[in-house]
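Example with several molecule types.
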Amino acid sequence: MRIGVVVNPDAGLGGRLGFKGSDGRAKEAREAGAVDRSGPRMQQCISKFLDLQQSSLNRMGVNPTFVAWTGRMGGDWLDGVDYEQRQPSPSESTADDTAALVLDLVTANVDAILYAGGDGTTRDIVNALEGHETPLIGVPAGVKMHSGCFATTPNAAAEVLLAFLQGDLMVAITEVMDLDEETYQRGEWKVRMYGEAWTPSSPRFMQGAKEQVERASEAETIEGLANHIGNLIEDDPELMVIWGSGGTLRRMGEHLNVELTLLGIDIQHKGTVYADLNEAALLEHLTTYDGPRLLLLSPMGGQGFLIGRGNLQLSPDVLRAIGLDSILGVATPSKLLGLSSVRIDTGDVTLDEEFQQRRFVKLLQGYRTTRVIRVLEA
Amino acid sequence: MSRLFDHYGAEGKGYSQPDALLSASELNLPSNMARKQLPRWPRLSEPEMVRHYTWLSKRNFGIDTGFYPLGSCTMKHNPRVNEVVAQLPGIADIHPHQPEHQLQGLLSIYYEMQEMLAICAGMDAVTLQPVAGAQGEFTAVRCFQEYFRHRGEHHRTKVIVPDSAHGTNPASAAMAGFEIIEIPSQEDGRIDLAALRAVVGEDTAAMMITNPNTLGLFEQDIAEASSIVHDVGGLMYYDGANFNAILGRTSPGLMGFDAVHYNLHKTFSQPHGGGGPGSGPIGVKEHLAPFLPSPIVDRRAPSGEEKNQAVDEYWYTWHTPEHTIGKVQQWHGNAGAVLRCWAYYRRYGKELRTMSEHAVLNANYLRHAIHREAKAAGVDHLFVDGADTIVAKHEFTLSLGPAKESLGISAMDVAKGLLDMGYMAPTVYFPLVVPECMMIEPTETESKETLDTFAKDFCKVLQLDAETLHNAPTTTPVRRVDEVYAARNLCLRHPFDDE
Ligand SMILES: Cc1ncc(COP(=O)(O)O)c(C=O)c1O
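Resulting structure tokens for the full complex:
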């Protein structure tokens, strides 16, 4: 297997200095005394990986080929690794260089990309990938790390890499999240979804009741989830389905032959899809129809936000018009693994309290299988 | 590897059979159904066969060779008197097709088992048909379904299970066509009534739960849970896998359950494991009795000729309940298992209550012994109780989370280390709600000496270094099995060299 390495050497520089990110401010940060963060963290991840590779945990004796640029965007941090050298890194780098590196790795046929950076780096990589489903393993090294492809620590990233190489992990879709720049200009800290990425995250085999069982793949699970919603619509053709954003929901839509937006909110009603609706349009649909409705939401990123990550269209008024009883979370087992509760931040204190008083929300986790999950107190 | 198949192709064969009554051509089998090739049976003589099985048995580990604290599976000693009863000629030689008047003895045993099980669980009617706990679950939820259909309550489509439930609970309900709602347990592993209240409604068909639960804790709120479910018109199902803890002390009936399954092979002693024959009868309250699978055994006063063959002045007959869901098993369930368990019950009678008390006492003693020995050995920082409780029931859980975090030693490593000490490993990674879980169930028949030695040996394993444990076991016929590889590469038949 071939593993591409991407280091954004400027990521994380702004953290100690209180910048919201380091994009475009590396020089300023270095002058103010910031020290390299992402390179050393990649170094740490690699050295942990080399240890793991020698240990008995390497059951299959995996020995991947690392592929990288020489210099500060790769090779400088690959101590002790005999990697495949592509070209030298520029002495100063921007998002464009990250993109060029990613494209070069894709040309070099890597099976996965191990990268160090933050949310901004993740966005750059995903944009450059342009739909290539190359799995990403993030070594957390930025200021903001809301995206779902980050391991919790550099050591954990090394463990994920080993498990992925041994075939123990399945690749799942996750959200790429970052600060919403518009609202940030107004002084608000709001995180929203920018895209989706593939990441090795869910164990292929899990401990069932007293034995190892092979899990359904992400694709099979999504098909089951889709069929469940399809049955609901068949049972009640009047049902208005309001689709939230995210890759899981969009793929469910594909199974039902409805084309949904990745980032927007769409309404499917009596055979028609109304795509990417803003708050006013949503309210219009919801107030002119008083029959059964169902809002489907997928918890976002690593922190399990069901409401309050980005979809500003889903305003408190819209949520009220839908009705709290008509909200159903949707989560694949890979999402559920790390999720013992969900967060809800509607931007309206009384509405948040209403959710908290109920204490639980329903999450669809497979065909005809729901679980209730606690709403975390604010 | 066994040398069994090396004998394939050897001259001659080790058995003789009478000539076939009909030749293949006389049988007139369609050609696509006839074998293209003779089966590749090994050609062995009887002593070679005996050696083969004896060799296999020596590589095996069972309750007869050592301590077997496999939590939730209740691997208890099987008294040999059970076998004597099951081998009695009048019992071992009967055929399920024999007419009722030749089966009066067996039927009377079935009847007595039905009655006894009903009394133990506080139920009104019992069927002995299902052959495993899981099949009992399926049978019971099918009865629930028919019950609701008869009441015109077709809208009851949801079955609630706690997240600590055994996987067979949601699987059985899903197989019967129900939707599953999973509710989270509380921090202490017990049922969360608030979560239950949040999900019940007029679509609730049933809740399935075991008590004591899969963490070995008694669900103190069980009566409250029953009334929450009953108040919305749902039914309560008792997973009897942990019945060994409460037999004779309390009953599912008292807790408000409408139906139960009994894992006869766990609670009433009958060899099990390795997919061997089990028995999972179910008991139900009166309102569900008309839906039980057929047949069950009934009795009445004998008439005419019958008087000569009657057992205890009763005539026993197969009976089909009025609205039966049909059959769930060939014939009459696993008669052999029922008979062994009947023998066990006949031997102990009301002392079965003492059996449960000893099972609970042994589990609690072992838990404390392990903590005591761990302190003495300085390894008490490597594990914690899986559930925060003063008393456990017949089994208890430990979490090896601290060992995993500080030393990289997992529950699986410790389990494998215990194999090297000559024990069957406890159940690991179940229930899933306890991290690095190890679930220990000593059962009632083990002596204090065995428990003390096990507690010491458990701590010796924890004193080993991580690398040694990653490589354990080293003394067993087969070293550590790569379970993931095995699950991925199923090998279900003997690979011949020439294929
Ligand atoms: C809690 C629980 N429920 C149900 C079952 C299923 O019983 P059986 O193996 O007899 O099908 C088991 C089996 O171990 C169990 O532990």
